Amino acid sequence: MPDSVDERKPGQGTGYRERRKKARMEPCHWCRATAPFVWHCRCGLRICQTCMDENFWGLSCNGITWVCPDCGDQNGFGNQ
Ligand SMILES: [Zn+2]
Ligand SMILES: [Zn+2]
């Protein structure tokens, strides 16, 4: 019984081309904008650099750490 097996899968073998590195764009909790870089709190809060700049006076008292407005935890700058 001749069965015609035709398993041609279009695109097969080119899957690796889909695996290009994409920058992780994460949404900011405040402005909802996605940014390639966001500050993370261990509670999961994310703040983009723009919001951090705008609220720097309220988030950081020493320029070394910033206080998460959500959980009140201290997070260090440059300690990502
Ligand atoms: Zn933001
Ligand atoms: Zn937090």
Automatic annotation (TrEMBL):
According to the UniProt entry, which residue ranges have a biased composition of type Basic and acidic residues? 1-10
Highest taxon, organism lineage: Bacteria
**Where does the record place the region Disordered?**
1-22
Q: Which protein are we looking at?
A: RING-type domain-containing protein
Source species of the chain: Desulfobotulus pelophilus
